[in-house]
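Morning, I've got a small favour to ask if you have a moment. I owe you a coffee for this, so here goes:
>
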Amino acid sequence: MTSGYLFAILGLSSFSVLGLLSKFSETKACRPGPTTALMYVWPTVLVSAFAAFFQDAGFRVPLTIPYVAVPFGACGALASLTFLASLRYGKISSSWLIINLSALLPAVLSVVIYKERVGARKGFAVLLAIVALGLVYKDRQLEQAQRKGSEESGSKQASAI
């Protein structure tokens, strides 16, 4: 197995654990703001330590980095805050699926902006992702309709008593 696959599996596993920890924090009534703040403090400390001690070039920050890092961090913080807040209103299975399907937008934009080539298999994968988003949306509609129907039947039974 090449190191690229090892890194991909490690990244996938880490993102998976993030999803589980996010739901755990919601079940413990942790507020999204402090949770997100700590979720970004620790990676900053750990990555900075790694870069300072294990990188050959040391920890030198190019002057252009704020132009990328600040919007990157702002988008990450907004995504984390909204995801953690959304867990109060829905299931982690659908919320996490939507988060993972959010990779679809950068993939499509990289084709449009950077003119990356898309083969038949990758095109089919993008199509499946779009279908999956539609199915998640449809499933959510059905759940809401069932919940509304059960609430109405419960209130009718209560009023009949």
Remarks:
- The chain has a mean pLDDT of 80.
- DSSP finds six helices and no strands in the chain.
- Residues 120-160 form the longest helix (41 residues).
- Residues 1-92 form one domain.
